[in-house]
Amino acid sequence: MTRSQKKGIYVSKLFKRKYLDIHATGKFILTHKRDSQITEDMIGMDIFVYNGQGYQVVHILEQMVGYKLGSFVFTTKMGNSIHNTKKNKKKYKNKK
C-alpha cells in the first residue's frame, strides 16, 4: 500500500539531518534506514545502505525519487538453491 500524499514523503529525522550536513561537504553517508524515502535533495549522492551483512552503494538518480532506499539493496543472495539441485548438477557434469 502506498503512503498518503497528504502525509508527504517519510524520511527519518536523524537521516535527513545527516544527509543535509554531508551533502555540502561531498562525503558519503552510511545508513541503516532502509525505510526512508528518496527526495529531490538526494539526487546525485552516493548513499551506503546496510543490507544485514555490509554496506552497498546506492547512487541516487532522478527516477528513484519517491522510492525507499531498501528497494535498491537486496538482503538475500539469489539463485543459490537453483544451482544446488541434483538435476542441475547432472546437467553441468554432462556438459563438461
Structural overview:
The protein starts with 12 loop residues before the first helix and ends with a helix. The protein has a domain at 13-75: 30s Ribosomal Protein S19, Chain A (2-Layer Sandwich). It has helices at 13-25, 80-83, 86-95; strands at 29-31, 46-50, 55-59. The longest helix is centred in the N-terminal third of the chain and has 13 residues, at 13-25. It has three helices and three strands. The radius of gyration is 19 Å and the shape is elongated. The chain has a three-stranded mixed beta sheet, covered by helices on one side. By secondary structure, the chain is of the alpha+beta class.
Features:
3 helices; alpha+beta; 3 strands; 96 residues; three-stranded mixed beta sheet
Tally of contiguous helical segments: 3
Helical percentage: 25-40%
Residues in β-strands, percent = 5-15%
The CATH homologous superfamily of the domain at 13-75 corresponds to: Ribosomal protein S19/S15
**Could you name the ranges where pLDDT drops below 50 across 5 or more consecutive residues?**
none
CATH class (first level) name of the domain at 13-75:
Alpha Beta
SSE ordering:
HEEEHH
What value does the average pLDDT take?
79
Give a quick account of the main beta sheet: strands, pairing sense, barrel closure.
3 strands, mixed
